[in-house]
Amino acid sequence: MTNINTASCQALLTWMKERVKKIVILTHANPDGDALGSTLGLHSVLLNIGYQSTVIYPTDFPSLVPGLEKYGNWVVFEKQEQEAIRLLEEADLLFFLDFNDIKRTGKVAKKLEQLSTKVVLIDHHPQPMVETPFLFSDTKVSSTAELAFDFIAKMGWMDQLDAAGANALLTGIIADTASFSHNAGRPELYEAASRLIAKGANQHRIQESLFNTNTADRLRLLGYALSEKMKIFPEYHAALISLTREELKKFNFKIGDTEGFVNYPLSVKGIIFSAFFLENAEKIKISFRSKGGFAANEFSALHFGGGGHHNAAGGESRQSLDESVEKWISLLPHYSQSLEKESMAED
Ligand code: 5GP
Ligand code: MN
């Protein structure tokens, strides 16, 4: 069971039939596997029904969904801003997927603030900040893709979910659970995965496109990050990795190359809290991962202007890389009790 309310779906369905032709689907900047999978899954269903649907991605993205070219029309805002603005202005309905706050759409946010178009929000992050009667938010589900699957079922659109749509949704699920390794305890998740495979999703191709597309450069960057740049603070059950722009350049860094790096320190026995600092042109982007009761999203919101999930969050810093890292290290003693407590619980 998810929080997707059948009565709200009925109301939405009636309204869509009467009023809606053009739809724009939006997700967060730097879209990950779940953002891409959930948007393309819903998009393909809407196209099959006959809606004029377009996905707008705030920024460019790696090709994580197998057979991406099949999904047709999407627009990258940072590359085709005029076209994206035209589509947003003409849309009868907007779908917001995999984000809880329009700030997460980066440069698109300014345009969204000017629009009064109806919005459907489908998301699994805590504290949705978007006001709409069509708020389908559920933090217990594995992924937005799983929630989108349930939404499609409750809207009565299962017949329009084809193999390409199923493939995209299963990509989102597998990406956000790291192949069913976290947020993966609910039986309904496996029912959804099973139904997607029955619809033609190709589990093997998804695994290949999500996890077996390393370049030699990326693998060497990971090796370097782990051997030279990982710092462990055993007394605080914490660890970090940081990478400078120069280091990234040395390994021919491409967007997405450091995806998942933050998880490696967390796999060291006894580590409860991991941080990854990436220096880019304007700011330091930080990823946080934690185990058990330690709230990575609260830590990020309090100290690094970010948020996210309880155990997987992100934030940023406008200080230098060294200063940002020092700030994080200096905060650890303040959390030593809760980190110690979680490490005992994990044992
Ligand atoms: P990642 O570390 O993979 O970039 O992000 C982990 C989680 O935190 C994702 O679910 C993402 O939605 C969220 N997140 C990442 N960066 C930010 C940020 O700057 N602000 C907020 N509110 N959430 C973020
Ligand atoms: Mn997600």
Offer a few descriptive terms.
347 residues, alpha/beta, inorganic pyrophosphatase (n-terminal core), 2 domains, six-stranded parallel beta sheet, six-stranded mixed beta sheet, 14 helices, 12 strands, 18% strand, globular, binds guanosine-5'-monophosphate, binds manganese (II) ion
Gist?
With 347 residues, the chain is an alpha/beta fold.
Q: Can you put this structure into words, describing what you see?
A:
Helix content is 42%, strand content 18%. By secondary structure, the protein is an alpha/beta fold. The strands form two sheets. The chain has a six-stranded parallel beta sheet, sandwiched between helices. The chain has a six-stranded mixed beta sheet with strand order 7-8-9-10-12-11. The chain is globular. The two termini are 31 Å apart. The model has no long low-confidence stretch (mean pLDDT 96). Bound molecules: guanosine-5'-monophosphate and manganese (II) ion (MN). The site of manganese (II) ion has 6 residues, from loops.
Strand and helix layout:
Elements: H1 6-19, E1 22-26, H2 33-49, E2 52-57, E3 74-76, H3 81-90, E4 93-97, H4 108-114, E5 118-123, E6 134-137, H5 144-154, H6 163-176, H7 187-198, H8 203-211, H9 216-228, E7 230-233, E8 238-243, H10 245-250, H11 263-266, E9 273-279, E10 284-290, H12 296-303, E11 307-308, E12 312-317, H13 321-331, H14 336-346
Parallel strand pairs: 1-2, 1-4, 2-3, 4-5, 5-6, 8-9
Antiparallel strand pairs: 7-8, 9-10, 10-12, 11-12
This protein binds guanosine-5'-monophosphate and manganese (II) ion.
